[in-house]
């Protein structure tokens, strides 16, 4: 296992020690870091910890079931105590870019349905300013090129120049999200006002959600490449 994977695992172990308690309702995040955490959580459930869990993606449902965690429908769980999820980038104010795994819409819904969200990551995800990672924007399939033009204009209005936007593809086919939408990956460079941009992008007809998460995270647990982890 690579050093980075060890760091992700360390974050997953630490977040359970610090934040997960018997009887909680949990939202389980998506991506490799979250999946390490879910596998670790499975060991606690096997030892008798009682949790009610829902997930932010179909892929996380598969991982959870694989380790013996039962999944409750998001419509049935009510208010969630704590959601634990990973970022693609996070700054020291806990602003994030998410959606590298195309799960941003479900991730944002579950984060907002929770009393608290804690982000888990390895140390490579921490940045001074967001924007090195392409910003994912989830758009409906209808007239997506029109929506793309409006996204480009909104980015330009925010002083972002040299914008490159790519519809996300895999195996020469467009990626379709769990909700049936396309993803536009926007290569922006540094984003000066992520909170403002998040709101403006979501005002465009055809945009379902974007990968800026500026109000969700209440803290982070960071796994280091030496295998330790710290809480911030
Ligand atoms: C999926 C996400 C993931 O949480 C994010 O991409 C982090 O993934 P990883 O832990 O594999 O780096 O936002 O939409």
Strand content: 25-35%
The average pLDDT score comes to: 97
Structural class of the secondary structure composition? alpha/beta
State the low-pLDDT regions, or none.
none
InterPro entries: NagB/RpiA_transferase-like, Ribose5P_isomerase_typA_subgr, Ribose5P_isomerase_type_A
Keywords: Isomerase
Protein name: Ribose-5-phosphate isomerase A
Pfam families: Rib_5-P_isom_A (PF06026)
Keyword list:
four-stranded antiparallel sheet, 15 strands, six-stranded mixed sheet, single chain, binds ribulose-5-phosphate, alpha/beta, 232 residues
How does this structure look, described?
The chain has 232 residues and is of the alpha/beta class. The chain has helices spanning 3-19, 32-46, 58-66, 104-112, 144-157, 194-202, and strands at residues 25-28, 52-55, 80-85, 89-90, 96-97, 114-122, 135-139, 164-167, 169-170, 173-174, 182-187, 207-210, 212-213, 219-223, 229-231. Strands 2-1-3-6-14-15 form a six-stranded mixed sheet. Helix 2 links the parallel strand 1 (25-28) and strand 2. Helix 1 (3-19) packs across helix 2 (32-46). It is globular, with a radius of gyration of 17 Å. Bound molecules: ribulose-5-phosphate (5RP). The site of ribulose-5-phosphate (5RP) has 17 residues, from helix 2 and helix 4.
């Amino acid at each position: 296992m690579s050093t980075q994977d060890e760091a992700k695992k360390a974050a997953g172990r630490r977040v359970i020690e610090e934040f997960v308690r018997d009887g909680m309702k949990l939202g389980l995040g998506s991506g490799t870091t979250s999946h390490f955490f879910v596998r670790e959580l499975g060991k606690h459930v096997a030892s008798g910890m009682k949790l009610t869990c829902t997930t932010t993606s179909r892929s996380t449902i598969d991982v959870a079931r694989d380790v013996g965690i039962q999944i409750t429908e998001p419509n049935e769980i009510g208010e969630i105590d704590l959601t634990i999820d990973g970022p693609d980038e996070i700054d020291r104010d806990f602003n994030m870019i998410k959606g590298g795994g195309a799960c941003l819409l479900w991730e944002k819904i579950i984060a907002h349905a929770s009393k608290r969200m804690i982000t888990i990551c390895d140390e490579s995800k921490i940045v001074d300013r967001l924007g090195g990672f392409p910003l994912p924007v989830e758009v409906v399939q209808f007239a997506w090129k029109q929506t793309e033009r409006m996204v480009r204009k909104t980015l330009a209005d925010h002083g972002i120049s040299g914008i490159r936007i790519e519809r996300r593809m895999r195996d020469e086919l467009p990626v379709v999200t769990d909700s049936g939408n396309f993803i536009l990956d926007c290569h922006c460079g540094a984003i000066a006002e992520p909170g403002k941009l998040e709101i403006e992008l979501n005002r465009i007809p055809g945009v379902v959600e974007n990968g800026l998460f500026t109000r969700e995270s209440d803290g982070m647990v960071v796994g280091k490449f030496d295998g330790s982890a710290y809480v911030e």
